[in-house]
Write a structure and sequence with these properties.
The protein has 287 residues and is mainly beta. Among the domains are: 50 residues, no CATH class; 132 residues, Jelly Rolls (Sandwich). It contains no helices and 13 strands. The strands form three sheets. Strands 5, 6, 8, 9, 10 and 12 form a six-stranded antiparallel β-sheet that branches. The protein has a five-stranded antiparallel β-sheet with strand order 4-3-13-7-11, with no helix packed on it. A hairpin with a 2-residue loop joins β8 and β9. This is Collagen like protein. Keywords: Collagen. InterPro entries: Collagen, Tumour_necrosis_fac-like_dom.
């Protein structure tokens, strides 16, 4: 197919190798080896000879200015998954969450081995006294011990003090006199003078004293023993019927200064008269 190009005669010269563009058929662009020599209807025709051998590569021209940035192309497909990077450092400890509900009770584990023996506790209180056992058989007779020293003969001190005549009338608050006596007191623990009402007893001694009395008058009446002017507890006896004999006794213990014993009328409805041989005192030293 023929190629046409427009030649601008104002610019053409003998050695022009500009490109001419055909106004009608701008399909091709040709370069004339020599010059454009025929022009027809604003068309140009290039006289094209056979293509010569390619000349040597000319030097690279200077870098032209960068063209404008083209539009961004469509997103390409995702590349293959890269290898996993190294483990990053652990993050800070987060806050503790709320306590969860308690789980169900697990099954009881097996019995563990017995622990070591603990120390002995303190002694407990004594138990109640057990019942007495049966009497054991009698042991063999022991040997006779040596004879002890002879003890004091306290029974040697005794006295019987009494009336051999009836008394004159005696009123309440008076002592009873005695007019006869039998005194057996080697140690002097008992002393008495007939006609008196007071018997003297030794110091720091113990005596048993008993009395008897009978009156036909002054019913009722009550008599008893006194030591140093004081009544002896439990020694008073009383009579409610005339010609009735009454008696009583007591154990008497003297002090450091000895004692004075008498028989005393504690109560009488009227004067009394005591009968002979039925009114008396008996005294025995005990210690």
């Amino acid at each position: 197919m023929a190629s046409y190009k427009y030649v601008d005669t104002r610019k053409a010269n003998k050695y022009s190798n500009d490109c001419c563009k055909c106004n009608d058929h701008c399909d091709n662009c040709c370069k004339c080896n020599n010059h454009c020599d025929d022009c027809c209807d604003n068309h140009c025709k290039c006289c094209v000879g056979p293509k010569g051998a390619t000349g040597p590569q000319g030097p690279v021209g200077p870098q032209g200015p960068a063209g404008p940035q083209g539009a961004v192309g469509a997103q390409g497909p995702a590349g293959a998954q890269g290898a996993t990077g190294p483990q990053g450092p652990a993050g800070a400890q987060g806050a503790t969450g709320p306590q969860g509900p308690a789980g169900v009770q697990g099954a009881t584990g097996p019995q563990g081995p017995a622990g070591a023996q603990g120390a002995t506790g303190p002694q407990g209180p004594a138990g109640a006294q057990g019942a007495t056992g049966p009497q054991g058989p009698a042991g063999a007779q022991g040997a006779t011990g040596p004879q002890g020293p002879a003890g004091p003969n306290v029974v040697a001190d005794n006295a019987d003090i009494y009336r051999v005549t009836n008394t004159a009338v005696i009123s309440q608050g008076n002592t009873i006199p005695f007019d006869a006596s039998l005194i057996n007191s080697p140690s002097g623990a008992i002393s008495f003078t007939n006609g008196n009402s007071t018997i003297n007893l030794g110091a720091n001694m113990t005596f048993f004293v008993r009395f008897t009395a009978t009156s036909e008058t002054g019913i009722p009446y009550a008599i008893g023993l006194r030591l140093n002017g004081l009544g002896i507890n439990g020694s008073i006896a009383s009579a409610q019927v005339a010609d009735t004999s009454i008696s009583n006794g007591a154990i008497v213990k003297t002090g450091a200064t000895g004692g004075q014993l008498d028989l005393f009328v504690f109560f009488a409805n009227q004067t009394i008269s005591l009968l002979r041989f039925e009114t008396s005192l008996q005294i025995i030293r005990l210690a």
